[in-house]
Design brief:
Elements (H helix, E strand, L loop, with lengths): L1 H30 L13 H17 L2 H26 L4
Helix pairs in contact: 1-2, 1-3, 2-3
């Protein structure tokens, strides 16, 4: 019984963590101007909003495959696109 409780607790923590990570990605994406996306040579803002929203849905659905999908989408946005937005935003023209 104790082992099952530990697994349930770990599952809950991972699920909540991925949901929060995905929400952070979609909120950050939503607040970025659409005209910045071509400057960093990535797809459109609409596509990234859809992908990050799907990451939230995948995190909520649960299961290892859905968690991997959620984590990959969110982490690609947060660690690839987000730093590039910061670089473009800090330039002075």
């Amino acid at each position: 019984m104790l082992f099952g409780g530990v697994i349930s607790l770990v599952t809950l923590i991972v699920s909540i963590g991925l949901i929060l990570l995905s929400v952070w990605a979609v909120v950050d994406c939503a607040r970025r101007p659409a005209n910045l996306f071509p400057y960093i040579e990535r797809q459109s803002k609409t596509l990234w909003l859809i992908l990050t929203a799907l990451a939230i849905a995948a995190a909520i659905l649960g299961g290892v495959i859905f968690w991997i999908i959620s984590a990959v989408i969110s982490l690609v946005y947060l660690f690839d696109l987000r730093p590039k937005f910061e670089q473009v935003g800090n330039r002075s023209y």
